[in-house]
Amino acid sequence: MPGGTWFGIETARRGMNVHQQALDITGHNLANASTPGYSRQEAVIKASSPYTSPDINTSVTPGQFGTGSLVEMIRRVKDEYLDNNVRQATTDYAYWNEQISFHQRAEALFAEPAGAGIGQRIVDFFKAWMDLNNTPQDSGIKAAVVQVGDELAALMSSTYSQLTDIQNSIYDSTNNTGKMYQLTTQINNLLSEISSLSETIKKITSLGQQPNDLLDLRDQKLEQLSEIGPVTLTEDPLTGNISNLTFFGINIDLQNLSQFSLEIDINDDILLRYNKTPAEDFNLTANAGDYNLGGGLLGAEKARQDIIDYKDRLGEIAKFLYDNIQDVGVATFYEGDLASGTFKVNQTLNTTPALLDGTRARAMANLRDKDMSAAIPYNLEEYFSELVTVVGNKSKTSDGLAANNQAIKQQITSLRDSVSGVSTDEELTKMIQFQYGYMASARMINTIDGMLDVVINRLSRG
C-alpha cells in the first residue's frame, strides 16, 4: 500500500533497474560507434503505472502515488525517408561505377602510341599505296604495302579479340560466366538472407520485442541489393516487417522466394528472369541506357553494349577495306573477317608480294578520301578517329558521373548518419546522466534502509 514500508524501496529499485538498462544500451552504442550500418539505440523510459487504479473499492486519497519508472522499449533511431534516399543514391552511383573498369580497359586498347596504333597504320597503309603509284613495278614497295596492310589487319584483329574478351568478362552466355552472372548470383544470395532475416524479425516482434540489430543487418543487405538494381519497399514503421519489396520493378515474395537468372531472347537481348510461375522478366538490354533506373547490373549491360558497338565499328572498317579494295580491282588483298578472327592479307600475296597489281595503286590511294557509306559520311581515318573519341568520352563520362553520384551518396549517407549514427560525445554525456540517476536511486534505498534501522532496531529498544 502507498506509504507502506517497502513502497519507497520498490520505487527506488525500479529507478536503479531503469538507469542500469539505459547504461547497458549506452555501452552497446559506444561499442558499435564504428560498426558500419549500426543504428543508434535508446531506452524509451516512462513512468510505471501509479498506485492504484481507481475502482469502486478504492479508498479515496489525495491522488495516485507514483511507483517509479520502467523501460518501455529499446528504440532504434532511424529515418526511413533518408534510408530510401541512400538506397536510391547507391543505385545511381553503382550504374556508372560498374562501367568504369570496362571502359578503361577498352580505352587502353585504343590508346594510340606513337607510330604503333591502328590510326597510324591506316595512314601508313595509304601512304604505301601512294608510293606504289609512283613506281608501280617496284617489288620493294609492293612488299611494304603488303607488310603495312598485314600489320593493320593484325592490329585490328587483336583489338577486336581483346574487345571480345572484355565483352565476355561482362557476360559470357555460353559458359555462364562474367560480372553479370556474378551479380545475378549475388542477387539470389542477398534475397535469401533478407528473407531469412525478415522471418526471424517477424517472430521476435510477435513476442513484443525489438530486434534492432537484426533490422540493421537487414537494412545493410537491402543497401547491398540496391547496388545491383533499383529496390523499393514498404515497411511497417512499428514492427519493421516488409509488406512489399520490388527489384527492377519485379515483386518479390520473401516467403516464397524464386531464383533470378539471365536468359537470352530471340533478339539476343539479355533478360533478368524471376523464375516464379508465371515467370517475370526485365529486359536489361532494352533498358540499359536508362540511367534513371540505375544499378550495377544495368550498368554492366550498358558497358557490354558499348563494347559491342566498338567491335561493330571496327568490323565496318574491315568490311570497307575488304569490299572497296575488291571494287577497285585489287583482287583478294584482304580475306576473312574480324568476327571469325580470320581477317588478314591474302596468304599468296603475303608469300609473294610481287604479285600485287601496282597499276591499281592510284585507285587504292583514292580510297583514303572516300566516305564509308551514305549513312557514315566520314572517310576511313575520320571514322576511326571518331571511334577513338567515342571510346575516350565513354570512359570519361562514366568516371565523371560515378564521382558526382558518389559525392551525392556520401552527402545523403552523412545526413542519415547524423540522425542514426552514434555520437560518442552524446553517448558519454548520457552515460554520466544515467550514472547519476542510478546513484540517486541507490542513495534513496540507502536512506530508506537507515530509516528502517531506526524503526526496527532503535525504537524497539525504547
TrEMBL record:
SUPFAM superfamilies: Phase 1 flagellin (SSF64518). Pfam families: Flg_bb_rod, Flg_bbr_C, FlgK_D1. Its main location: other. One of its GO terms (cellular component) is extracellular region. It is found in: Bacterial flagellum; Secreted. GO terms for molecular function: structural molecule activity. Residues 105-325 form the Flagellar hook-associated protein FlgK helical domain. Keywords: Bacterial flagellum, Cell projection, Cilium, Flagellum, Secreted. GO terms for biological process: bacterial-type flagellum assembly. InterPro entries: Flag_bb_rod_N (IPR001444), Flg_bb/hook_C_dom (IPR010930), FlgK (IPR002371), FlgK_helical (IPR053927). Residues 9-38 form the Flagellar basal body rod protein N-terminal domain. Residues 419-457 form the Flagellar basal-body/hook protein C-terminal domain. It comes from the Bacteria. Belongs to the flagella basal body rod proteins family. NCBIfam families: flgK_ends. This is Flagellar hook-associated protein 1. It comes from Desulforamulus ferrireducens.
